Each structure stands twice: as C-alpha cells, then as structure tokens.
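Try this one yourself first.
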C-alpha cells in the first residue's frame, strides 16, 4: 500500500501508538477526579476541548478558513450537519459512561466494551454499509457474542457499561465516516455543538455553589482544565497517524487502550475478576485474533487486486 504522505510508516506508528497509550492511561486521570460528578467532568471536558481545539485551529490559517467555510456549508447541507450532531452526542455519551465506569469500580467492564468496539463496527458495516462480512469476521463476531452472553448470565443482567461504550463508539465511527471532515475541524464542530449546553450547566452549578471548579481544591480545577488537552491531543495524534498507516495496522494498535485499562483495573484498582469473566475475556481475545487475521488476509487480497 502506498503512503499518501510519503513519510516513514514509523512516524505513523509513533503517532497512533501515542494516542492509544494516552487513551489507556486516561483511566488514571479520571480516577483523580473521582470527587467530581461525571456530568460535571463531561461539561468541562467539552468546554476545554473546544477552547484547546479552537486555539490550534486559529494558529493554522488554512484550518480556520476551512472551519468557517464548512460552517456556512452546513446551512445548505443539513444532512451533513445531522451526522456531526450525532457524532457529538455519541462521543459525549461515550465520555460520560467511561468516566462513570472508572469512578464506580467498572474499569474491567469498560475495557470489555472497548475490546468489543471493532466487532460492533462489523455489524454497522454489514447492516448500514452493506459490507461483506466474510467467514473469519462472522466467526469472530459470534465468539464475542458468546462471551457477552456468558457475562450477562454471570451478572444476571446485560453488561450495559460495556455495550453502551461499544455502541456509542460504533455510532460515532459511523457518523464520522458519513461526514469525511478534517479531523481537527470536525472536533471543533463536535465540541462547539455541546459547548453552549455545557456552559449553561457549569454556570448553574456555580450559581448553586455546588461546582467543583474554582474551589479551594486547586488541583481539581487544574485537572478539569487539563481534561480538554488530554481529550484533544490524542485525537490529533490519531488523525496524523492514521494518514500514514494501513487500516489493518491501526486495527491492531487500537487494542493497546483496552489492554492498559484492563491491567489498571486488575492490578492497580484491584477489581475482582471471576472465572466466568476470565473465560469471557478469553473468548473476546480469541475473537479479536480471528478478526485481525481475517482482516489482514482481506487487506492482502485487496492490495494484490489493485496492483
């Protein structure tokens, strides 16, 4: 596969790996904000992400002109705006569910959701894009489904944290695929949509005197402001990395994030893992290996056909 930017693929691996490593360790970041309600963290994350993203866009004149141009474009093409709006809602839901999971002892289940995300994408691809699933991917999906079923039996209820994270990620990816916007500009719009509501919510908390920001806990205020940077930075790295690498390579690297989250939950937060959970994870990991193998074969065949 030719490299569209002419860069060494190593730079793509560094960019993409850095993004997924940071996403994995964000589990610890949200744990530090365990004294702050999840929706307040979400509101700060949206606001400060918008500030940080717009600061970068303003520094790059080409990006700023594109941001203004596309903003006018949305008034004429409402379907494109609808997908941006859906993406904004999906990523906000994903953020708040993950933050809640971290601060309620559900990191293991959250990591399961991140492992399941590519498999949910298969379903979206087949149902919405009419993609050909193939035998290998079909097998990987049903093995993962068995793992989720066992967890459901174990819990006595549907593992909604894992499924919600996977579904919100799948919806976000689908909406992004439908817009095909520049990553930085798209993030500007996504955070812009949520910012007015987030600002009103934070102002309400300040008026009531229940806000965590600006209190005597200076570290909390700094961490809330930093939420924008740790949100935007890995997305920018990911956007740079994915331009330089085949999607099959990105697909393998993405499992860094749930693996880090799983180990943090297991080793640092000492979350219990039962035999059924271990067996379910083994099924999920097996399905991932089958998925990666089948995807690599499919990419190789496609490359040979294009040559």
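Now uncover the answer:
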């Amino acid at each position: 596969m030719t490299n569209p930017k002419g860069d060494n693929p190593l730079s793509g691996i560094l960019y993409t790996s850095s993004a997924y490593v940071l996403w994995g360790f964000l589990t610890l970041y949200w744990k530090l904000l365990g004294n702050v309600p999840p929706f307040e963290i979400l509101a700060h994350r949206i606001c400060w992400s918008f500030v940080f993203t717009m600061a970068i866009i303003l520094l790059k004149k080409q990006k700023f002109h594109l941001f203004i141009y596309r903003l006018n474009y949305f008034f004429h093409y409402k379907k494109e705006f609808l997908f941006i709006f859906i993406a904004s809602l999906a990523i906000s839901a994903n953020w708040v569910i993950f933050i809640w999971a971290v601060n309620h002892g559900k990191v293991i289940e959250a990591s399961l959701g991140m492992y399941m995300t590519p498999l949910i994408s298969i379903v979206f691809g087949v149902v919405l894009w009419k993609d050909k699933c193939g035998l290998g991917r079909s097998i990987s999906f049903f093995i993962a489904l068995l793992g989720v079923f066992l967890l459901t039996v174990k819990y006595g209820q549907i593992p909604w944290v894992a499924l919600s994270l996977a579904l919100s990620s799948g919806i976000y990816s689908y909406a992004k695929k439908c817009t095909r916007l520049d990553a930085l500009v798209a993030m500007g719009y996504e955070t812009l949509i949520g910012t007015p509501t987030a600002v009103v919510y934070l102002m309400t908390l300040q008026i009531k005197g229940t806000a965590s920001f600006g209190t005597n806990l200076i570290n909390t205020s700094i961490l809330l402001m930093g939420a924008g940077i740790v949100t935007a930075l890995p997305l920018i790295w990911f956007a740079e990395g994915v331009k330089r690498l085949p999607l099959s390579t990105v697909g393998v690297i993405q499992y860094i994030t749930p693996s880090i989250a799983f180990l943090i939950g297991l080793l640092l937060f000492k979350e219990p893992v039962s035999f059924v959970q271990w067996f379910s994870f083994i099924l999920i990991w097996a399905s991932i290996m089958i998925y990666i193998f089948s995807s690599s074969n499919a990419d190789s065949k496609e490359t040979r056909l294009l040559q």
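Discussion: The radius of gyration is 20 Å. The first helix runs from residue 9 to 32.
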